[in-house]
Write a structure and sequence with these properties.
Blueprint (H helix, E strand, L loop, with lengths): L2 H13 L2 H4 L7 E7 L7 H13 L8 E7 L7 H10 L4 E5 L13 E5 L9 E3 L2 E2 L3 E5 L4 H13 L5 E6 L6 H15 L2 E6 H6 L2
Parallel strand pairs: 1-2, 1-3, 3-4, 4-7, 8-9
Antiparallel strand pairs: 5-6
Helix pairs in contact: 1-3, 5-6
Length: 203
C-alpha cells in the first residue's frame, strides 16, 4: 500500500464530523477528492486511499461515498471542481498535490497531501500546529538531500562540486537548498543551486 495514501485516509477518517460518526452506520459520509492531475496517474493511490478508509470502518457502498474530481492537467480547473463538491455537498475535502494551493476559501475540513513545506505554504503555523480547518501531510524530507550527497560522495570519492536542481518557487525549496549546502560543507563539497526552468530551457 502506498504510505501517503494510507495516511491521507487516516486523516480523512479522523476528520469526519463527530456528529456523523456517532450516527447509524446507514448514514453515508461523503468525501470529496480533488486533484489537478489525471485519473490514470493516481489510480494506485486512489486504491490505497480506499483501502485505508475501509480499515478505519468506512466502506464505499455501505457508509461512504467518495466524489472524485480531476483537473486533467488543465490550469485553473480546481476552484470550479471544489465548488461542485461543496454544492453536492461533501463532509470534507482531500486536496492532492497542486490542488491544495488552488482551493477557494472553505468552511469544510480539508486534508492536504503535498510535497511542499506546509509552513512555507501557509497551511500550518508549525508542523505540530495546522492552521484553521486544514490538516494533512507532506512528503518533504530535507534530510534526504544530505543523504543523497553522502551517497554521491561514496560513489565518486573525488567529487568536489554538485549542482542541486530545483524549483525556487516550490514552497520549502529554500529549506532543501540550505540543508544541501550545509551538508555539502561538512563533506567538503561545493553545492550550487540551479533553477529547474533554466536548465530545461538550455539546448
Amino acid at each position: 500500500m502506498h504510505r501517503r495514501a494510507f495516511l491521507a485516509s487516516t486523516l480523512a477518517a479522523a476528520l469526519v464530523p463527530h456528529s456523523l460518526a456517532a450516527q447509524s452506520t446507514e448514514k453515508v459520509r461523503r468525501i470529496g477528492w480533488v486533484t489537478a492531475q489525471t485519473a490514470a496517474s493516481l489510480a494506485p493511490y486512489i486504491e490505497a486511499f480506499r483501502k485505508g478508509l475501509t480499515e478505519h470502518g468506512y466502506s464505499e457502498g455501505r457508509n461512504l461515498a467518495i466524489e472524485y474530481r480531476y483537473g486533467e492537467g488543465i490550469d485553473g480547473r480546481v476552484p470550479d471542481l471544489v465548488r461542485e463538491l461543496v454544492q453536492l455537498p461533501v463532509d470534507l475535502i482531500v486536496a492532492q498535490g497542486a490542488a491544495a494551493f488552488e482551493l477557494p476559501p472553505l468552511d469544510l475540513p480539508v486534508v492536504f497531501v503535498i510535497s511542499a513545506d506546509p509552513v512555507s505554504s501557509g497551511f500550518a503555523d508549525s508542523l505540530a500546529k495546522p492552521r484553521g480547518n486544514k490538516s494533512g501531510l507532506t512528503l518533504m524530507a530535507v534530510e534526504l538531500n544530505g543523504k543523497r550527497l553522502d551517497l554521491l560522495r561514496d560513489i565518486i570519492p573525488k567529487l568536489r562540486r554538485v549542482a542541486v536542481i530545483g524549483n525556487p518557487e516550490h514552497p520549502g525549496a529554500h529549506l532543501e537548498r540550505g540543508f544541501s549546502e550545509a551538508t555539502g560543507r561538512q563533506l567538503g563539497l561545493r553545492c550550487r543551486a540551479a533553477n529547474r526552468m533554466e536548465v530545461e530551457r538550455r539546448p
